[in-house]
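Here is the promised in-class demo. Please do not try to memorize the tokens; focus on the logic of going from shape to residues.
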């Protein structure tokens, strides 16, 4: 272990720092007194992080000169980009990031993936994650893969409407799904990035339990006092409903693929990775609901 690693003075770079996950990781690292570079395609949006002590840089993986933006970083958190609308673009960006990290002399990359991204996954963008994992494995870099399961926070996209109407349409069947809070993912990512561990590892980041859609609905009814009837529909009917609600086609296909992934049993793994990395137990879905009642019941 180097003196830099021992003293905790390695320079840590977080990409996607303008997003919710990246911003929180930067905040957590700054609270620890770490030297942090916050990277974003729009660094002007990072003024608050700069005021807290972060160096800010423009980091754009579509820029052929992006390696210069990574110069001086010892460890890098590569947060998967949001380029989902154009097939293939996200993976090209990630591969460019890996190549740039090698060229810039970065020692270790932490990457946010998803569970079971290997070929055969129903999730529409699983190939982007698998391809990125393969690019890291083929590189000279050390790496840590954080396979984050479905955010508890993402239930804010569907559950408030279900609570308001009393109906929740799904094609997930009786499949189990594990949720994890974005906060726990941020804490796990900050811990992995700040670690002095040089080994390459894969962690599946989950919450403490796996539930069916009916189980989540029952839990929500207990916490929010509003009954929700789960209505199982076909994948095609679910897609039609989402499209009718105004979601763009690529997002409709992604959402339906999540339900398929759950239905076929690929979303049910529960691990202790959050505790391993952070020393804290992950927040349960019940606790998340109780802490965010106003967000789930905005009219209450």
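The designed amino acids, position by position:
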């Amino acid at each position: 272990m180097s003196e830099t690693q021992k003293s905790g003075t390695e320079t840590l770079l977080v990409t996607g720092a303008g997003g919710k996950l990246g911003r929180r990781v930067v905040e957590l690292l700054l609270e620890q007194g770490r030297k942090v570079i916050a990277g974003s395609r729009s660094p002007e949006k990072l003024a608050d992080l700069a005021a807290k002590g972060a160096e800010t840089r423009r980091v754009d993986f579509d820029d052929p000169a992006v390696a210069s933006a990574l110069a001086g970083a010892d460890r890098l958190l590569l947060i998967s980009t949001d380029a989902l609308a154009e097939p293939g673009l996200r993976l090209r960006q990630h591969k460019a990031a890996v190549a740039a990290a090698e060229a810039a002399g970065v020692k270790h990359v932490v990457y946010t993936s998803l569970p079971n991204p290997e070929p055969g996954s129903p999730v529409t963008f699983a190939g982007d994650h698998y391809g990125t994992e393969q690019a890291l494995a083929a590189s000279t870099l050390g790496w840590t893969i954080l396979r984050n399961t479905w955010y508890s926070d993402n239930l804010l996209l569907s559950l408030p409407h279900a609570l308001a109407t009393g109906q929740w349409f799904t094609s997930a069947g009786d499949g189990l799904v594990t949720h994890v809070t974005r906060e726990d993912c941020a804490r796990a990512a900050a811990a992995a990035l700040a670690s002095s561990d040089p080994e390459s590892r894969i962690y599946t980041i989950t919450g403490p339990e796996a539930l069916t859609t009916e189980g989540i609905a029952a839990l929500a009814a207990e916490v929010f006092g509003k009954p929700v009837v789960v209505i199982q529909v076909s994948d095609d009917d679910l897609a039609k409903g989402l499209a009718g609600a105004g979601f763009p086609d690529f997002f409709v296909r992604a959402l339906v693929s999540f339900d398929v992934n759950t239905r076929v049993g690929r979303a049910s793994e529960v691990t202790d990775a959050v505790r391993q990395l952070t020393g804290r137990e992950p927040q349960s879905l019940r606790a998340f609901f109780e802490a965010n009642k106003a967000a789930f019941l905005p009219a209450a």
